Amino acid sequence: MNFFNKNDLLSVGRKEVNNQIYSENSSSILKRRYINFQSSKTYDIFLSHSFQDADLILGFTKELEKRGYSVYVDWIEDGQLDRSNVNTATANQLKFRMKHCKCLLYISTDNSSFSKWMPWELGYFDGMKGKIAVVPVVDSDTFKGPYKGQEYLGLYSYITYAEAIYVNHLDGSRNVFFEWIRSTRR
């Protein structure tokens, strides 16, 4: 089992940027998708992440969509939100979106520890639905598990991949991601 590699995800994200007819950055490409957005749409995944990881998030989103999952990324779908300003309007919009997602994936990077919103999203979703997994993004292919997690992140299942994406549970068991997302197991 492998963890998602930071450089691999950045490469996928930047390749997507380079494939565009016009030179755009990752957030511009993803924001263009807002045109097709439906406010009542449901998603498989709420992606909790640091905006500082935009290229990486683009790559990870592409990897998930390639496998057939629908992914909610706040600054793509709700570009009007000001995440730098913690307020009730933004919080209410994120709560609404979380209610329409099957699970939350918490993207753990060096930048995530500086996010104001990620701990709040994790706590809210845990209290509401509880179907959460941490996605450790590492700098090297040589890093192997088990993932221990920083502080409270160690309380949650975590994601690895090989030929498929797996959810590794604290009891040592694991599920294929598509089975877990459809199951009642947290």
What is the topological layout?
Layout: E1 4-5, H1 6-18, H2 26-32, E2 43-48, H3 54-66, E3 71-72, H4 74-77, H5 88-99, E4 101-108, H6 118-128, E5 132-138, E6 157-161, E7 165-168, E8 174-176, H7 177-182
Parallel strand pairs: 1-5, 2-3, 2-4, 4-5, 5-6
Antiparallel strand pairs: 6-7, 7-8
Task: Describe the structure in your own words.
The protein is α/β, with parallel strands linked by helices. It has seven helices and eight strands, in the order βααβαβααβαββββα. The chain has helices spanning 6-18, 26-32, 54-66, 74-77, 88-99, 118-128, 177-182; strands at 4-5, 43-48, 71-72, 101-108, 132-138, 157-161, 165-168, 174-176. Strands 1, 2, 3, 4, 5, 6, 7 and 8 form an eight-stranded mixed beta sheet that branches. Helix 1 (6-18) crosses helix 3 (54-66) and helix 5 (88-99) crosses helix 6. The chain is globular. It starts with a strand and ends with a helix. The mean pLDDT is 85.
